[in-house]
Amino acid sequence: NPDLTGKYLDLEEFIQEYYNNNKHLKLVIIDPLAGLMFDDAKSAYNYIYDYKQTRRLQDIAIDLGISILAIHHNRKSESKKAIQKMSGTQGITGAAEALWVLEREDNSTTGHLTIKGRELEDDLIVLNFDKSTLEWVHLKRKNMLNFFILIRILV
Predict the structure, then answer these.
(1) Pairing state of beta strands 98-104 and 110-117?
(2) Is residue 124 within 8 Å of residue 113, measured between CB atoms?
(3) Of 101, 103, 104, 138, nearest to 116 (Cα)?
(4) C-beta neighbour count of 77 within 10 angstroms
């Protein structure tokens, strides 16, 4: 097993070793993405650094034939485009194969999931959060995408 006693986890090594011992691995979820990215304050909000960090995740996914879902936060400031609301530089969004942005107003159970990707048709899905089951329930969508397409996801 990888040494987890150090300050930072070697994510590539960890995923590779886990995959070697568990060939059925199809999905890795990283929450939050920022927890893996910033070694120091000088690296924060640097396009090249952000791109390289998220690109390394994409490279792992491609090499192993798996999907990586990285959870990231939105900025507090307003923007008309959902993708521009993601925190950090465009280096984070530039390396991703697909971006899913979930937005909702404070105290609202209705959310809007914007989907953009290199090989995907843009989509907007309206969801409702069911507090009794703690699930997001599909209400309607802009385009009918095939949900069964296997894609590599990085947010």
Answers:
(1) antiparallel
(2) yes
(3) 101
(4) 8
